[in-house]
Design a protein that fits this description.
heterodimer; A: mainly alpha; Multidrug efflux transporter AcrB transmembrane fold; 2 domains; 0% strand; disordered C terminus; B: alpha/beta; Rossmann fold; 6-stranded mixed sheet; 4-stranded antiparallel sheet; 10 helices; 29% strand; globular; binds adenosine-5'-triphosphate; binds magnesium ion
Chain lengths: 254, 258
């Protein structure tokens, strides 16, 4: 399927104006957000398209692109968790381990061809999935510990370090961070048509090919997220930085 | 062995800007039960939690002054908290059993400290010592959360005994128990006091009178609506505190409440 910039442009203007008009007529607020969101999507996707087009002709660039993506994912996720620098390193490692394990399997089996065209978007999607899971699992862990602080204190009072005590909460937090993807995988094709599938069909691929790629993405995400959740909940501190550093530090002024 | 296990020297505790406990100096003897009594908010829990550095888990908590355990500063920068908390165990107001089997609850501490051999023996000994063995021996794999609250509190004590501490801190251990379960914990505490130093926070004056050897009476010093802080008013043998208190405020409290 070929796309034509001019026709795309016309369609986009009509789509945007339609949304803007509906919001105006019915007096909905946040029209400014609509403008900003649309402009950002336009600028960001154009930029990404240019970069990826460049990478397709210079495959070494893929490494840099993915490295930057990893860093941004870890930063975003760690900010959501409210972690400090050390937590951030843990999150980075968790995302890296999850994504690299999955991409390695898909690449080494030859399920996707060993090219930037195939592996770059796949890796990007895996990193994105890992980021979501790291945030969910990390936030969950800290929420659970805060909600069950007396149990947490029970472990600490027996001589457990905060991280050892946190490990007792890690399993539950990991499990629950997997629910969204498990649900999404269970309902794939029933409730919604997943993104890769739709994209491949639009791109002219056969439905069977689209289903195969979509399966690699979905099951790949399960592996990414299992690894990322387990590693995140074991590497970050179970307590927010304001408390997590108290142990072992001098607290006496006089 | 006799002598002082804890020495507190001008200890004050603040939470953020709020002074919770002011200028407490006292010593806690080895063995027996030392009770900390006084009205709500006078800083009993705060004091107890400085002894094993549990206040580290409270945002903004800050200790001034000196707390010595066995002659060594509890707050020293290089203090090994794992060792401190192994030697100074804690039992909480609400029995906080772990969501695992009865056996695993008791084995958690020793396993944490690297013990691999004789765990089952240790579990049995600890449960027996806590007076719970006969009630749970038939099914050690059952979930701890399925026990009655009174059994859970004895399990928490067994869990604490399993790491072989020298001191057991108890913060209102019977507050959530019925009278029968309370009696069980009280007689257990009495018997443990022969081998362990027990520091017991209680708001139940009769309980302090029944099972403690020494009693420290704390009271909140009220400045105005918003600001008040706890102070140690009087400290002595339990008998003296309850029969012949020296301070008028102690007299008012122990007599007024009975
Ligand atoms: N985490 C905290 N943050 C701020 N202030 C606190 C905190 N914990 C306790 N305080 C304050 O410190 C003072 C002493 O509290 P503490 O819990 O030690 O009293 P207590 O004698 O154990 O009372 P109770 O009998 O109700 O358990 C109180 O005024 C309380 O409001
Ligand atoms: Mg209290």
């Amino acid at each position: 399927m070929e796309v034509e910039p001019i026709r795309t442009g016309i369609a986009l203007v009509l789509l945007f104006s339609g949304a803007f008009a509906v919001m105006t007529v019915s007096g909905l607020r946040f029209r400014k957000e609509l403008v900003i969101a649309s402009l950002r999507a336009f600028v960001q996707l154009s930029a990404v398209a240019l970069i990826i087009a460049w990478i397709f002709t210079h495959p070494q660039g893929a490494v840099v692109y993915l490295a930057v993506m990893l860093l941004v994912a870890a930063y975003t996720s760690n900010r959501r968790i409210g972690g400090d620098r050390r937590d951030g390193l843990g999150v980075l490692l968790a995302i890296f381990l999850g994504a690299s394990a999955t991409v390695s399997i898909v690449a080494l089996t030859g399920a996707l061809e060993f090219s930037a065209q195939a592996l770059l978007p796949f890796s990007a999607q895996m990193i994105g999935g890992a980021m979501t899971t790291a945030s969910l699992a990390g936030v969950r862990l800290r929420d659970d510990v805060r909600d069950q602080l007396t149990t947490f204190e029970g472990y600490v009072a027996l001589g457990a370090t905060y991280r050892q005590a946190g490990r007792e909460f890690a399993g539950r937090a990991s499990e629950r961070s997997l629910f969204p993807t498990l649900d999404q995988t269970k309902s794939a094709g029933l409730v919604t048509l997943p993104g890769a599938f739709v994209g491949m069909l639009l791109g002219g691929a056969s439905p069977l090919a689209a289903a195969q790629v979509q399966l690699l993405v979905l099951i790949g995400l399960l592996l990414v997220q299992a690894i990322t959740a387990v590693v995140t909940t074991r590497l970050i501190s179970p307590l927010p930085p304001s408390l997590g550093q108290n142990a072992g530090q001098p607290r006496v002024a006089a | 062995m006799t002598g002082d296990v804890f020495t507190l020297d001008h200890v004050s505790v603040t939470y953020g800007d709020v002074l919770a406990l002011s200028d407490v100096s006292m010593t806690i003897n080895r063995l027996g039960v030392t009770a900390l009594i006084g009205p709500s908010g006078c800083g009993k829990s705060t004091l107890l939690r400085t002894l094993n550095r549990m206040n580290d888990l409270v945002a903004g908590a800050h200790v001034e002054g000196m707390v010595l355990f066995d002659g060594v500063d509890v707050h020293a920068p290089d203090r090994d908290l794992v060792e401190l908390r192994r030697r100074v165990g804690m039992v909480f107001q609400k029995p906080n059993v772990f969501p695992m089997s009865v056996r695993d609850n008791v084995a958690y501490g020793p396993a944490l400290h690297g013990r691999r051999d004789g765990l089952d023996d240790l579990v049995e000994r600890s449960l027996s010592r806590a007076g719970l063995w006969d009630e749970v021996k038939d099914d050690l794999q059952r979930s701890a959360t399925a026990l009655s609250v009174g059994q859970q509190q004895r399990l928490v004590i067994a869990r604490c005994l399993a790491v072989e501490p020298e001191v057991i801190l108890m913060d209102e251990p019977t507050a959530s128990l019925d009278p029968v379960a309370t009696m069980a914990i009280e007689s257990l505490t009495r018997s443990l006091a022969q081998d362990f130093t027990i520091v017991l926070v209680t708001h139940d004056l009769r309980q302090a009178e029944r099972i403690s050897d020494r009693t420290a009476f704390f009271m909140a010093h009220v400045h105005d609506e918003k600001s008040r802080h706890g102070e140690l008013v009087e400290y002595g043998s339990t008998e003296a505190i309850f029969t012949d208190p020296q301070h008028p405020r102690t007299r008012e409290y122990v007599h007024g409440r009975r």
